[in-house]
Amino acid sequence: MMVNGSLFRCIINEIPSNEFVSLRVYSLKNSLFEVVFTWQGSWHFNYHKPKNCELLIKYAIEQGWHFNQEKNTMKIEHGDFLIAKLGLSV
Fold first, then answer.
1. Nearest CA among 46, 38, 9, 43 for reference residue 21
2. What's the DSSP call for residue 45?
3. Closest CA to 35 of 88, 85, 74, 86
4. 6-22, pLDDT tens digit by residue?
5. Are 54 and 1 within 8 A, CB to CB?
6. Would you call 82 exposed, middle or buried from its count of C-beta atoms within 10 A (0-12, 13-18, 19+)?
7. Given strand 73-76, what is the order of strands in its sheet?
8. 82 and 56 Cβ atoms separated by less than 8 Å
9. What is the mean pLDDT of the chain?
10. How confident is the model at residue 67 (pLDDT cuts 50, 70, 90)?
11. CA 33/CA 67 separation, integer angstroms
């Protein structure tokens, strides 16, 4: 997906046996942003909506994720607060 002229790949991990749901976003420089949600939190928005992914990517960049640097990583362990903060929708 394109965000602000840059290309990103979004991978959603919704394996039922996992304790949490995660969204991983990779840039062309193999930089990684990962946000982890509880299963309960994940019921309140749709990961597959491009607008939700875009909002999460923009938030990560605003928080200091340097996606254009080689192998730069950022992880948010408890991302449920982002659902309301960013207005993620179903």
1. 38
2. S
3. 74
4. 999 999 999 888 899 99
5. yes
6. buried
7. 2-3, 6-13, 20-27, 32-38, 73-76
8. yes
9. 94
10. very high
11. 8
Contacts by 55-60, CB closer than 8 A, 24 or more apart: 55/86, 55/87, 55/88, 56/23, 56/25, 56/82, 56/86, 56/88, 57/1, 57/3, 57/8, 57/25, 57/33, 58/3, 58/4, 59/85, 59/86, 60/25, 60/33, 60/35
Whether 42 has a pLDDT exceeding 90, the answer reads no
Q: Which amino acid is at 12?
A: I
Q: Of 37, 47, 41, 35, which Cα lies nearest the Cα of 1? A: 47
Q: Cα(9)–Cα(7) distance, rounded to whole angstroms?
A: 7
**Predicted pLDDT of residue 51:** 96
- Per the DSSP assignment, residues forming a β-bridge with 24 are 11, 34
Q: What are phi and psi of 40, to 5 degrees?
A: -60, -45
